[in-house]
Design brief:
seven-stranded mixed beta sheet; mainly beta; four-stranded antiparallel beta sheet
């Protein structure tokens, strides 16, 4: 079993920055990849960024150049550094882990990010 706990959301003005953290616990050696998704009201959940067990990263076009995913293996934590935030970045951000042989999805509880003047 893998558990994910997110932190770092909040209210920020346009152009501001936030860093989200996702701490993994439990059977962390079964984690293949981790990522951040977001879901805005009335919209589908979308992949924002991901990082593989080998360290390869992916960033959605909408956040490329503004958001950076990284991880600290010693702390079993994945980060999403968000800069130059825009109102359209407002959403609940969820941490995700792909676990085990069948790439089962494990989700965190979500953290709200609101970008508003």
């Amino acid at each position: 079993q893998v558990q994910l706990v997110e932190s770092g959301g909040g209210l920020v003005q346009p152009g501001g920055s936030l860093r989200l953290s996702c701490a993994a616990s439990g059977n962390i050696f079964s984690i293949n990849a981790m990522g951040w998704y977001r879901q805005a009201p009335g919209k589908q959940r979308e992949l924002v960024a991901s990082i593989s067990s080998g360290g390869s990263t992916y960033h959605a076009n909408s956040v490329k150049g503004r958001f950076t995913i990284s991880r600290d293996n010693a702390k079993n934590t994945v980060y999403l550094q968000m800069t130059n935030l825009k109102p359209e970045d407002t959403a609940v951000y969820y941490c995700n882990a792909r676990v085990g042989r069948y790439e089962n999805d494990v989700w965190g509880q979500g953290t709200q990010v609101t970008v508003s003047p």
